[in-house]
Amino acid sequence: MKTSPKGIALIKEFEGLRLKAYLCPGGIWTIGYGHTAGVKPGMVISEAQAEEYLKADLIAFENYLNGLGLAINQNQFDALVSFIYNVGTGNFSSSTLLRKVRANPQDNSIMDEFLRWVYSKGCVLPGLQRRRLAEMKLYFSND
Questions:
Q1: Half-sphere exposure of residue 27, counting CA atoms within 13 Å on the CB side?
Q2: In this structure, are residues 105 and 72 in contact, taking their beta carbons and an 8 Å threshold?
Q3: Given 11, 76, 124, 127, which is the most exposed site by the fewest CB atoms within 10 A?
Q4: Cα–Cα distance for residue pair 56/126, rounded to 1 Å
């Protein structure tokens, strides 16, 4: 599967576009639409480069998620790509969210698992709360 336009729009909405490197709330240098690989202080990119970084990052996360062999639909895939884009493959790999999706992708308790991931450095971030609610809504939507 590939991330749909709906999934890409969700990621862009919550990552935002920043053409100059910045420290995210987690203390990681970031640029573009949440791109982190090789980002250094003072780095500046164009909007076209931000799009290229996004495409490359999406391919990596899509390949990872596709490699898990989950029996999920497009909305579930998009929601999980957005989630992984934000928390990383390592965190997702060891999460109860993944364990529950593997066991039963329709399990309603998956909603609670999305909502557990709203903290940065021990503090609840309102932006993460909004993102998790949007991902959860997309995951369980039928359209």
A1: 2
A2: yes
A3: 124
A4: 28
Distance CA 4, CA 26 (A): 27
The pLDDT tens digits for 88-123 are: 999 999 999 999 999 999 999 999 999 999 998 888
What topology does CATH give the domain 5-139? Lysozyme (1.10.530)
- Known active-site residue 24: yes
The ranges assigned to domains in the chain are 5-139
Q: Which residue has the tokens 């053409």?
A: 19
Residue 51 annotated to the active site: no
Q: From the candidates 13, 24, 51, 135, give the one annotated as an active-site residue.
A: 24
- For residue range 45-74, list pLDDT tens digits in order: 999 999 999 999 999 999 999 999 999 999
Counts of helices then strands in the chain (DSSP H, E): 7, 4
Residue type, position 29, single letter: W
**Catalytic residue (one of 15, 62, 113, 135):** 15
